[in-house]
């Protein structure tokens, strides 16, 4: 099997690891994470270093590609950009858990994650670096633009259009034919019966626009023990992109 690495050693990274192991298509060498101690162990795998170690790691372990395991859509984009500055032709792979289902004529980009129980129905298009999380479903002819995501137990009717960097949160139901713009968030447990534009936060049943969003504004709730980058870390990532 070909050797790959995972960028991000948080809880989301552990789930991505499980997908890769169960899929059995690639051999995972370890994690790359700037916020974890080098040589520490996560789920039995070594933290190999940071993105700056990539050229060395690729040569040492004959790595053919990897996947960015960052749950926040905007931060995932920043990490991808950082990787491509260091290794311009880096190969980002998809992982499809064996208990997920991809329908007829589904088109996939790169760097996508399909978690256990995920369903993508016929004629849908998933662009790059998307997350289709546990037990979520995308109806027929759906389109997910790059860096968009469906949280666990999301149920989407057919012909959904989900814009870049937009996220549908836990347990949201979306009726057929809805369009949601870029950088928008639909809050957990909502029922979406109308389309929404760019840069908005909406929630409720039915979902209503609550306010405008700032691009890159965090939207995932985390415990104090979890290592998801904070706003301060986000600024650090941005500054590192100038290398």
Automatic annotation (TrEMBL):
Annotated GO MF terms: acyltransferase activity
Active site per UniProt: 140 (proton acceptor)
Domain PglD N-terminal: 3-83
Residue positions binding substrate: 10-12, 71
Domain of life: Bacteria
Keyword Repeat recorded: no
Keywords for this protein: Acyltransferase, Transferase
UniProt keyword S-adenosyl-L-methionine present: no
NCBIfam families the record matches: NeuD_NnaD
Name assigned to this protein: Sugar O-acyltransferase, sialic acid O-acetyltransferase NeuD family
Top-level taxonomy: Bacteria, Pseudomonadati, Bacteroidota, Flavobacteriia, Flavobacteriales
